[in-house]
Amino acid sequence: MADRIYGWIRVIVIGLVAGYALIALAITLWQRSLLYFPLRSHPPLTPGFAEVSLDSAAGRLLAWYRPAAAGRPTIVFFDGNGGSLPDAAVFTEPLGRLGYGLLLASYPGYDGNPGRPTEAASIRPDAPTSPGWPATASGRRSSSVIRSARASPCKWPRRATAAP
Description:
Elements: H1 2-29, H2 31-35, E1 50-56, E2 59-66, E3 74-78, H3 85-97, E4 101-105, H4 133-138, E5 145-149, E6 160-162
Parallel strand pairs: 3-4, 3-5
Antiparallel strand pairs: 1-2, 1-6, 2-4
């Protein structure tokens, strides 16, 4: 009788360990789809913004730009996981009404952009704080650039240029 009980306990323990291992393997294999929930389609442009492109390892990424009022800085804004450019436009609307310039950046795999959302495929760290960037995008300079994010899984942008 005791052998039968120990046999059942062993089967249950082996089953639980095997089940745990399968769940851990499934989470490992599909972790990107569990972490990122991108809007994959190209969103309609929100009034007041112009489409610009940012270079990345994944290709040219869509961004939206609204120039700053004279003497106001430009805010480079990255929306959080599951966010989109229209979400970022709504979130930053009060700043735009105050005259701040806005560059709403998107990630690979989001908002109709090519690629998948990974750190390696994301935009680079060394601009749009480069000296010529605001003038390149808007035709005039903003006094400064401020970087901001709700939750940023990537590095900062390398270069922004007007979309062709």
